[in-house]
Amino acid sequence: MKKAEVKFINITKKFNETVAVDNISCNFEAGTLTTILGPSGCGKTTSLRLIAGLERATEGKILIDNEDVTILPATDRDVSMVFQSYALFPHMSVIENVSYGLKMINVKKEEYTEKSIETLKLVNLEGYENRMPSELSGGQQQRVAVARAIVLKPKVLLFDEPLSNLDAKLRRQVREDIREIQQKLGVTTIYVTHDQEEALAISDKVIVMNNAVIAQEGSPKDLYNNPKNKFVANFIGDANVLKAEIENKEGNSYNLKLAEMKINIETNKNLEGKVSVALRPEKINIQKNNTENSIKAKVTNASFVGNSYQYILSSNIGKIYVVSDDTKNIFKIDEEVFLFFDEKEVKILND
């Protein structure tokens, strides 16, 4: 299958006076799966529709395989899209749905039948050729929609929140199927979702959008471990965003006070006064006894969620959320505890 890089160069999209995408530039590398992640109204679906040719950019350029496609119609872009609603033809069988695009470009019946059957094997729907969409589960219908898109062997494959209509367990299975298919084919794939776990699980790169601009982009691991600002810290997983006080500075090294705890951080940022920091809940340890360098807290809520306990604690710097994989030695509500963690897990944020 073809591999093509997609580029946004200073792309803006306006709907009358509303700016849906605001002067963004980014690359979607050839052969990779990039997820555009963000809350409703952030501009992610509009960005996808701009690539598909379903919307036209107000300003800027879109390149696919180094070709300027900014004003090309959708039919001339060699792009396939899988929609949230599946958009299958209810009166057509599975194989008729999958082969529809090939028939429209005048591929011979023997050839489009063979290609459709091969593609159904790829999405694990061999033997379902003659079923109607109404006879399929939601997950099977989504696979038919994927098959219909990839049978055309597009340069770019687009997904618009494809799993939002499925239950949690089925979402995990279908997202694994999509990732496996993408890796087998090596097709450049751009995937839109508001689900953080989904984005982290399947992506080579994640682009986080907020208020029509890119808040941060990078690998899932980098975004999770090194968020740049409060929005990304809170949107990619859970984070405690806390205030730390600068006590001393020597070069790039800062001594910070976080409640009763003293920590040292090295950063190239010029910090003054109080700074916002992020700390992931699973990186915090709880114990009953005071240690030399810890934060004093009180348990206000404790919840058992199967493989872990989730605690909410009150402290001198506000509420702190902790996830502990110790489900035997548990802490009770109103119990006084002490929190400690590796200072390397504390990340400085831009406000």
Distance from first to last alpha carbon? 44 Å
Radius of gyration: 24 Å
> Strand percentage, roughly?
35-45%
Unreliable runs: none
Mean pLDDT: 93
Q: Which shape, going by the Cα principal axes?
A: elongated
Order of helices and strands: EEEHEEEHHHEHEHEEHHEEEEEEEEEE
Strand pairing plus helix content: what structural class? alpha+beta
Give the proportion of residues in helices: 10-25%
Quaternary organisation of the protein chains? single chain
- Please summarize the sheet with the most strands: 6 strands, mixed
**What order do the strands of the largest sheet run in, or round the barrel if closed?**
6-7-8-3-9-10
Number of helices: 8
Pick out its properties:
351 residues; alpha+beta; 5-stranded antiparallel sheet; 8 helices; 20 strands; elongated
Account of the protein in words:
It contains eight helices and 20 strands. By secondary structure, it is of the alpha+beta class. The strands form four sheets. Strands 6-7-8-3-9-10 form a six-stranded mixed sheet, with helices on both faces. Strands 13-12-11-14-20 form a five-stranded antiparallel sheet. A five-stranded antiparallel sheet has the order 15-19-16-17-18, with no helix packed on it. α2 runs parallel beside α4 (138-150) and α4 runs parallel beside α5 (168-185). It is elongated and about 75 Å long. The model has no long low-confidence stretch (mean pLDDT 93).
Sequence-ordered SSE layout with sheet pairings:
Elements: E1 6-15, E2 18-28, E3 33-37, H1 44-52, E4 59-64, E5 67-68, E6 79-82, H2 94-104, H3 109-122, H4 138-150, E7 156-160, H5 168-185, E8 188-193, H6 196-202, E9 205-210, E10 213-218, H7 220-225, H8 230-235, E11 240-250, E12 253-258, E13 261-266, E14 274-279, E15 285-287, E16 295-304, E17 309-315, E18 318-324, E19 336-340, E20 347-348
Parallel strand pairs: 3-8, 3-9, 6-7, 7-8
Antiparallel strand pairs: 1-2, 1-4, 4-5, 9-10, 11-12, 11-14, 12-13, 14-20, 15-19, 16-17, 16-19, 17-18
